[in-house]
Write a structure and sequence with these properties.
381 residues, alpha+beta, 4-stranded antiparallel sheet, 14 helices, 18 strands, 39% helix, binds guanosine-5'-diphosphate, binds manganese (II) ion
Length: 381
């Protein structure tokens, strides 16, 4: 589960990390009022789950009420990389001299959590990580002991943070690690930590993602869930119990099993297409479930074609085929061409059962994906 910036900042602030004064607004009027109360200049920031909002025009610094109104009008309702902005954080602007990066995540390669600090914070940390990995100081953590204070200081020192603020930055890193640990975080990140002229250290952005499988023991985080899905399709998919991630392409993908779905995504990419989503329909593929999966994928305006990749195991291919037929018969019109690839138990019977008035059947995964990519290209033209 991904928290919004304003939610993550609340969690961070409760733990003692300094954050700017801020108010959440869902209308232009609210935003203007909030800005007046906070005092100019303020930053108006889109609250959607995408990175790089600054570069994409989702963050504006304003000097007075008029500019605040114009910025709020621009940002509220805007489409940011496929997400509609329905709320903004109105926040006291920080006059900074430096931007740092501070983060905690699981280093799967090392099999340990890792705490990170860099003085190359701001908007390009991914580039820094790729091109100049040494610019990020890293300390691996033994989860049994947590991040030792000396490790936090060492990371900050290794990163080359100014001495005057080193203690405060180390303390933010320690708090961030403790939160990540206590609240079952998967990623915790502050980019940037802003350093002001006076040597103040402030968390100007916040990312906090929490392990979905731990939400049962994180009631405070779990109760934020209703407000976190800014994507109607993800909300719909959650209700149906699918593992679903919306992506930016136009080839809809439905499969059973996460690995199979990932493989399909990779192949779509390989054949020059762009996946519109990840959707794992899970075990069993009865008509109802297939129908729900199709409803989610068809509801995505970006989708131009759909590919099913089903491996029959305990769920037999003939059952799946009947499910697909029944599900598609429920739609008055099928909005996008659908290609099916069945493999595994009873797949041959399944392929015979599939109604080819409704779907295209391909024998191999490669053929199915190529067909779906070609269909999507044709529709998109
Ligand atoms: P992101 O682009 O989604 O990561 O959003 P951030 O909150 O990290 O903001 C991106 C960039 O906008 C920051 O690195 C700053 O350069 C700028 N910015 C954000 N808030 C402020 C602010 O309060 N004051 C100033 N001067 N710049 C800000
Ligand atoms: Mn940021």
């Amino acid at each position: 589960m991904r928290l919004h910036e304003y939610q993550a900042k609340r969690v961070f602030a409760d733990a003692g990390i300094p954050v700017p004064d801020a108010t959440l607004a869902t209308t232009v009027a609210e935003a203007v009022d909030a800005a007046g109360e906070i005092g100019f200049p303020v930053a108006i920031k889109a609250q959607v789950h995408v990175g790089g909002r600054g570069k994409a025009g989702g963050i504006k610094l304003v000097e007075d009420a008029e500019e605040a109104r114009a910025a709020a009008e621009d940002i509220l309702g805007m489409d940011l990389k496929g997400f509609t902005v329905d709320r903004v954080l109105v926040e006291q602007a920080v006059d900074f001299v430096n931007e740092l990066y501070v983060g905690v995540t699981m280093d799967r390669g090392a099999g340990k959590p890792v705490a990170m600090v860099s003085t190359k914070g701001g908007v390009n940390i991914e580039e820094v990580a790729a091109e100049n990995p040494d610019a990020i100081a890293r300390e691996h953590v033994d989860p049994a002991y947590g991040l030792h204070p000396y490790q936090a200081r060492k990371a900050v020192y290794d990163a080359g943070v100014d001495r005057e603020v080193a203690g405060d930055v180390a303390s933010i890193l320690s708090t961030l690690y403790d939160l990540w640990d206590e609240k079952d975080g998967s990623d915790a990140e502050i980019n940037p930590v802003m350093i002001t002229d006076e040597g103040e250290v402030i968390a100007a952005d916040a990312v906090f993602n929490v392990d979905d499988d731990a939400l049962f023991r994180q009631p405070e985080i779990a109760q934020l869930e209703g407000e976190t899905t800014d994507d109607d399709l993800e909300a719909m998919a959650n209700e149906y119990g699918f593992d679903y991630v919306r992506l930016s392409g136009n080839v809809g993908i439905i499969g059973n099993g996460a690995g199979l779905v990932m493989t399909t995504l990779d192949l779509v990419d390989h054949y020059g297409g762009a996946p519109a989503n990840f959707l794992d329909i899970g075990g069993g593929a009865k008509a109802g479930r297939v129908r729900n999966a199709l409803e989610v994928v068809f509801a995505d305006d970006n989708v131009d074609s759909v590919v099913f990749n089903i491996f029959g195991g305990i769920t037999r291919g003939d059952e799946v085929a009947r499910g697909i037929n029944e599900a598609l018969e429920e739609f008055d019109t099928i909005p996008n061409p659908v290609t099916v690839r069945l493999a595994g138990t009873n797949s041959v019977q399944g392929m015979e059962i599939l109604n080819t008035d409704l779907v295209t059947v391909e024998e191999t995964l490669e053929e199915a994906v190529q067909r779906a990519v070609a269909d999507a290209e044709e529709v998109a033209q």
